[in-house]
Structure formats: structure tokens, C-alpha cells
Amino acid sequence: MHREDPPRRPRRRTIVVALGVVLLLAAGAWWLLSREEVVVRGGIADYYESAGVRDQLGEPEANERCGLAGGGCLQEFEHGTVYWAPGLETVHVAAGDILDHYTDAAGPDGDYGYPVTPVIHDDPTADFEYLRTHNPRSGEWFWLISAGGEDVVPVDASDAIGARWEADREELGAPTPETAEGERCTGEDLCRQSFRDADLIWSPATGTHAISGAFRARYEDSMGAPLGEERVNADGVTVQEFSRPAEGTYEVMTWTARDGAASHTVRGGLATLYAASGRSGGELGVPVSGESSGLRDGGVRQRFAHGDAYWTPRTGSAAVTSPTALRAWRAQDSEDGIWGYPTSSKRPLDGGWAQDFEGGTIEVSGDGYSRFVPDAELAEDPGAVLDGVAAQYDLGPARGGVEQLTGGVRYREFEGGVAVLGSSEGALAMSDAVFETWRTKSDVTGAPRMAKDDDGRLSTRFAKGTLAHFPERGDMVLRVSSRLGAGDALVIGDSQLGEGDHQGSWVAQAIRDNGYTPYYEAHGGIGVATDGSRIGFGSYYQGVVDRKWILPSGDPELIYIQGSGNDSYGTSSREIEDKLTQTIRTLKETYPQSRIVVTGLISKQDASSRNKVSDVLEKVAQDQGVTFVPLEGKITEWNSGSYLKDGLHFRAPDGHDYMAGKYAPYLERFLRR
């Protein structure tokens, strides 16, 4: 039998497979031996293992790379890069536009230096995120800001603009494309960077301030650096000031709802004056016009919210800011009038102030009264001075020429009043009625001192009080320096109010006990129709109806007319009745809001002559519809006869005190009606 041998396996295939296995094993061993281990070590490792950082960064993608500026290192991770340097805090920068921008700018080796914060996006409503860095070599700080689709924009300026932006980033918003390369500077004087809602401007002299809204739209670098933020001043005007120190100028922007935005430049001597006065927050306020040149003697003028400022080569810089002086000066053609240019600032004077002009000095009181004192040269032309007063107070055309009173006082009458000029009085004005009162009662008024247009009423201050004419109050001249009102009592009386010491009298005490403050027109020896004062003080009728007295202005709550025994000595009942009637009617015209009280004569029982006068007074009071307080027989009823010193008047102080205790509650009964 023939037997076949089994087939043989191909030896070549086996060898190839075996060889392949050997080569694969060798290559794997080589790869394992040649692969560098990625580790996180040192300060970066400490930071990486701190709370939450590993989760933010993911796994390392390469080992640290050292040799950076200042001996620093960095290490890249899946979601960002960690930066470490000796003496600095270790920080990571998350992957994104900011990291790409920072890396492209050479990272720590570039201008930005090392990051000092992670990428910050602490407000989910904000439309930007940022990274803060510091370059120890240059000392500069940077804020790298990303607003999504826009470029990453650096903010620096020796950290000033960046620090301000970081503090107010929500209000300012992200940088705008106008400053995609960062801030723009003009030399070393001014740097500017634009953000969504404002521009930040920095200068070494003024620091960093924002410009926004209408001011931002008008601003130009040539205006200089802002001196502060915009603000609303006391006049309700929004203001922001800018300065160019090298040129000595100020640019002032203003905004109001009515006028919108405006800007005016203040320069030269006026700029010096503006600064010295406190700029826009000071005496001048904001400028409301540009500079006007070509004035007399080479002068220039600029108008401000609170006055006019002038400069001339001869007089220098000065401003007129008082409303009183400004109205008077402008009414007389300002610098072209008789006053001329201001030559000084205001200076204190007797509780008010004074200011010098080329033609003289204006003096103004603390409550707005004024007079003009012409210099010696101008005083030689009284007509011009008096016409100037007429223009100041709008007295209208003249009714005649310049006249002179005894003592050298000159005056001129105009349709609306009288202008007066005296060597001690200066130049001032008064109404016709006040002028006549002064001429006939100068012993009562004293010399004129100053005048004031008080809402259309011309008041004149004299040495002994301030007077004004009230056509609507019985055509009276009243003492406006003694204005009465609620709680006040005008008390008209005789010696029952005491001789000199009215306050201690039984009448005055009773009035005060009823809640009133008395103002007196009283003197011994006088009555309704009688003046036995021996000094011409005047009866009640003469004082009120004949205007012998100068009564107080206002509306006293009470007018108290004390019945007087002086009318019981030979004065007829008819005369008493007529004169009291006219007196009350005049008082009603003068004080239409006041309550009038008339009393009878204080008397003992059965004092027929005094009681007869009281009966007349009571009748008039009833006819005129005013309160009457009878005092007939009260000395007897109140057992006060022992306190009389002469049968008619009470001793001071005990008699007056006793009577006041009796009279006050009695008077109250009538005042309550």
C-alpha cells in the first residue's frame, strides 16, 4: 500500500507573523520609554489643587514652561492657563478671547505683564468680562475687556482709567470700537478712552473723570481735562468744567432742559477772576456768553449767571455780582454810564458791602438797600447823578430841574418819585409822599441813608427807621422797619400807660397777659382830641388822621385805643365824637385786617365828667362796629384807690401791678367776644 505524507505549513508566513509581533513589542516599549510624563508641580500645583480650580481648568495638556519675565512659569490646561511668578499671586486665565489676546501680546513677557485676577464676569446682566494685569517692569496696570463680538480692548493709563472703570463698570459699560487699541493720549497731559455710556479722561493734574450725555457729544480734546464730574448747581443747571492750565483757560459746559447744551471759554484776566471767585460754584456762577471785546478803553466783558465780569488794561479784572448793584449799574448804561467800570471787588461794610467804580462807590446793606456815593469829580454834576438815580429806580421823566434844600441837599422831582443827593446821604430815591414826610418831619425820620425797590414799592431808610408810601392803605406813609402782624398790638394811649416806661403800666401788662406784644403811640397829656404833651406829640386824631405820627406797617392783630381823661377838660362831646370817628375810620383803612378795641376812662364811682367822655367813646365804638371796654367806676370796684399817687395815676410799680392783675382777666372777657 502506498501512503502519502501530510501537507507542510508555510514557514514564511509564520516567520513574518513572529517578526511583526517582535517589532510591535519593540515599538511599544520605545514609545513608553520615550513619552514625557505631564505633571503639575510647585506653586502651580498648589493653586491647581485649591478649591474648585481643577474643575474649572480640567486636565493639564503640557508641562509647565518657565523662563518667563521675572522668573515666572505658565502651564496650559484643557480650559485655560495658569501663571506663576516669584512674589506674585498665582492666577489662571480661562480659555477664550481674552486669553487669546493676552497670549498674542506675549503674555507675561509683553506689555501687560502678569494677570492679577482671573477673568471676571461677576454680573450676569453685564455684557462684558475682563482680566486685570500688572507689569512690574513698567509699573502699569491693564484691564483687558471683552464684550463678546468686539475686540478685546486694553485699558491702562498708569491704572487710573482702569481703576475708575472697574469701580463703575456697570454704569460705564464695555469699551467702544472707537478705542479698540486702548486709550489714546495727547503727550503726557491727557488720556481718553471711550466706553459704552461715557468717556473717561485722565490727566496728572485732575485725575480721572467721566464725560457723558450731551457733554460727551460736544467734548473735544482741545477743551482740556475735566476738573470734576458733571453736577447740578444751585440754579438747577448741569455743569462740567474743563481746564487747559498751559493756556490759562477754562471751558465750561452747561445744560438745561430749556436751552440744551452750551459751552463757553473763560480766558486771560477773566479766567483768573473766575478761578478766584470759586469758578462755577462761586460768586460769578457759570458763564452764559462768550467774551465781548472792543469796549471802551480796550475793555472786555463776559456775562455770567450771577453778574458781569470786566477786564481793562487800566482797571484790571472785576465783576459786578450783587443783584442790587447789577440792576442799578445796568440801568445806567453799565460801563458807559456815569459809574464806569468796576475797579474793585466787594468789601464788607457795616453788615453789608461796598464796591468801587470809576465814578464812585455803591454801598449795599445786608437786606438790599443801597446808595451811590459819587466821587468828587462826579459830584460836581448833580444833574447827572440824580438822573442816574431816576434810571436806577425807574422814576420816569423829570418834572423840573435840580433844587436844593437847607443844608446843601440837592434833589430833583420825577414822575415816579424824587432823587436826592447829599454830601452825607449820597444819592438815593424816595417816593413823593416819603419825601414830603422827611421834609416836614426830619426830626422824626432822621437823615436819609439808603433806598430799595421792594417789589415795586420804593422804601427809603432813614436814621430813625425805614419808610414807604402805601396808597392802598389810606394813602399812608408807614414805618416798614416796624412791621406788625399776628400777636402784635398797636397801643394808642395817654399817661395811664406810664411816663416813659410804657411796658410797666397796668394797661401794657394786661395786654401782654392776653398774649399780645404792644407797640406804642402814647404820651402823657394827649387824648382823642387833645394834645397837652407840651412837645407837640399830637392827639390821637392828629397822630393818625393828620399823619403827625408815622405808624408801623403790617396788620397788627389788635389796635387798642385807651380812653383818655385829657379829653374831659373842656373838649366838647361833638369834637370828641367827630375826631374819634375819623380816627377809627383811618385806622380801618390803614389796617383792614386788624381788630379795634376802644376803652372808656378809668374812673371812680360817680366821676361824672370822665363818665361823660366814656359815654361818647362808647357811642362811637358802637357806631363803628368796634369793641368797647367800659372802665367806669372800676377804681372803686377793684379797691385800687389806695394805689393812686395823685388821684388819677397809679404808683409804679405796685399800683400798676395791682391794677394789671384786675384788668387782665376783665379785658380778656371782651377780647373773647
Give a verbal description of the structure.
The chain is built from 19 helices and 38 strands. The protein is 26% helix and 28% strand. A hairpin with a 2-residue loop joins strand 2 and strand 3 (80-84). The protein is an alpha+beta fold and 673 residues long. Helix 9 crosses helix 11 (382-392) and helix 14 packs across helix 19. The model is unreliable at 1-10 and 29-34 (pLDDT under 50). The longest helix has 24 residues, at 11-34. Among the domains are: 364-470, no CATH class; 476-671, SGNH hydrolase (Rossmann fold, 3-Layer(aba) Sandwich). The radius of gyration is 47 Å and the shape is elongated. Strands 13, 14, 15, 16 and 17 form a five-stranded antiparallel β-sheet that branches.
Largest sheet: 5 strands, antiparallel
Q: Mind telling me the CATH class of the domain at 476-671?
A: Alpha Beta
CATH fold-level assignment of the domain at 476-671: Rossmann fold
Q: CATH-wise, what's the superfamily of the domain at 476-671?
A: SGNH hydrolase
Percentage beta strand: 25-35%
CA(first)-CA(last) distance: 169 Å
Low-confidence stretches: 1-10, 29-34
The total beta strand count reads 38
Mean residue pLDDT: 92
Using the 3D structure, state the CATH architecture of the domain at 476-671: 3-Layer(aba) Sandwich
Coarse shape = elongated
The number of helical elements comes to 19
Organism: Rothia santali
Pfam family, one: LGFP
Domain SGNH hydrolase-type esterase: 498-651
Keywords: Membrane, Transmembrane, Transmembrane helix
